[in-house]
UniProtKB/TrEMBL annotation:
Origin species: Zooxanthella nutricula
Domain Class II aldolase/adducin N-terminal: 1-166, 243-417
Position of the signal peptide: none
Protein name, as recorded: Class II aldolase/adducin N-terminal domain-containing protein
Keyword rRNA processing attached: no
Length: 442
């Protein structure tokens, strides 16, 4: 939480369910001084043992474990953007499809009540409903999950969404909210999101119809392009390129253009391309997590490719000079995408993407052919595009250049939104000047 920047001082706290009760952080101990003895056991009668008092907010944790059987971990914090929205008593609406990752069509803000009281627990549970994340008015946010990793992921994702939403609002215009029936589809999709096939449980017909569509899998032959599955001694082909994809992902984290596991990267290799696997955190990626796909759209190996493999695939099929693709949901590009706005020629560097504007592709459901089609339309002859209510994508002649352009697009989006936040629209460069720029960028 400290590393992610979602905790402020000692205001955050975390817990997990154990046999007979749960473990929660002690009151007022700075995280960097915590030892296992500072983690307090509480039983489900609300009694604690040991010499340290639990966090003054133990009651919210306790009431989640009592009321939500599937909750096995809770994360509570006062991160900047969630707390700012909570002070406005605002929900996070469906301005981005990732809102569905919290289990509903909106993330609700619980009514204000004094911290540590039963009244706060009650208003928190009302705000949750069947969702796993909520804001707490004039206070912060809280979420739960099936384990600490997933609860932490959701806390960070909630803060990312709050930041994107506030950034969009800073332009003075409200973001476009996705329709109800699209969010129904998203809720179905999130049952299968970020999961490898072995992790999928029973799905309803509607959920199966909208499941993340995995491409066909080919058996890896010894020394074949996929190679290197469990029990296979053959060396991984394209090892150098696999490492370069991982390096690019880690650089996305360092640059702050990736949020959670929402970004993905790929590069063209002989006979196809290499793309990041679905739902594997970048810092845990090994070369075996980089999936080979051929240009027939089949993958090999034991990991499923990113749920967004189709955009990569369609770029390699349609754009001969594209040799690398970077996709992410960085804050400012995502905020503009939620406003369905292009980046105009307010700065000459817009021409670095190969055109006089950077276009925003029309909204389509992630992972679908419709999204690939609208992305290709938005590209035209350009190398970077926004994706409505989603994020950005770009390609280049190699991973370094694609990463550079992804970061440059986010810098331009940030500069443009910062100019809009003054209340006046920035001056746009004339067409003939942008023609000169396009010539210069060759
Ligand atoms: Zn608090
Ligand atoms: Zn995406």
């Amino acid at each position: 939480m400290n590393r992610m920047g979602i905790n402020q001082g000692t205001s955050g706290n975390a817990s997990c369910r154990v046999e007979g009760g749960f473990l929660v952080t002690a009151s007022g101990v700075p995280y960097e001084k915590m030892t296992p003895a500072h983690i307090v056991f509480m039983d489900l009668g609300g009694n604690y043992t040991g010499s340290y008092m639990p966090s003054s907010e133990w009651r919210m944790h306790y009431d989640i474990y009592k009321s939500v059987p599937e909750a096995a971990a809770v994360v509570h914090a006062h991160p900047t953007y969630c707390t700012a929205l909570s002070a406005l008593h605002r929900n996070i609406p469906a301005f981005h499809y990732m809102v569905a990752a919290a289990g509903g069509k909106e993330i609700h803000c619980a009514e204000y009540a004094t911290f540590g009281t039963q009244a706060l627990s009650d208003s928190m549970l009302t705000a949750f409903g069947s969702r796993r994340s909520a804001l707490l008015a004039n206070h912060g946010m809280i979420c739960h999950g099936p384990n600490l990793d997933k609860a932490l992921w959701l806390a960070n994702e909630t803060e990312c969404l709050a930041k994107q939403f506030i950034t969009a609002l800073a332009t003075g215009s409200p973001p476009v909210v996705l329709p109800d029936d699209e969010m129904e589809v998203m809720l179905a999709k999130f049952k299968t999101y970020g999961k490898q096939p072995s992790q999928l449980t029973a799905l309803s017909d509607f959920e199966r119809r909208h499941a993340i569509s995995a491409p066909p899998r080919l058996e890896a032959t010894a020394g074949g392009a996929g190679g290197g599955g469990p029990g296979c001694d053959a060396p991984l082909p394209f090892l150098e390129q696999r490492n370069k994809v991982i390096e690019t992902c880690l650089a996305m984290n360092r640059m702050g253009i990736n949020q959670g596991t929402s970004g993905n990267a790929s590069c063209r290799v002989e006979g196809g391309f290499l793309v990041t696997a679905s739902g594997v955190p970048y810092e845990k990626m090994t070369p075996a997590h980089i999936v080979f796909m051929d240009l027939g759209g089949n993958y090999t190996g034991s990991y499923m490719p990113s749920s967004e493999w189709r955009m990569h695939y369609d770029i390699y099929k349609s754009v001969p000079e594209a040799a690398a693709v970077v996709h992410a949901h960085p804050t400012y590009c995502t905020a503009l995408s939620a406003l369905h706005r292009n980046i105009p020629a307010f700065h000459y560097m817009v021409a670095a993407a190969g055109g006089k504007e950077i276009h925003c592709a029309e909204y389509a459901t992630f992972g679908t052919q419709a999204l690939s089609d609208s992305m290709l339309t938005a590209f035209g002859s350009r190398r970077s595009a926004l994706l409505a209510n989603h994020g950005m994508i770009c390609h280049g002649p190699n991973l370094d250049k694609a990463l550079w352009l992804a970061n440059e697009t986010e810098c331009l989006a940030k500069q443009f939104i910062t100019a809009l936040a003054t209340g006046s629209p920035p001056v746009v460069l004339p067409d003939d000047e942008m023609e000169v720029m396009l010539a210069k960028f060759k």
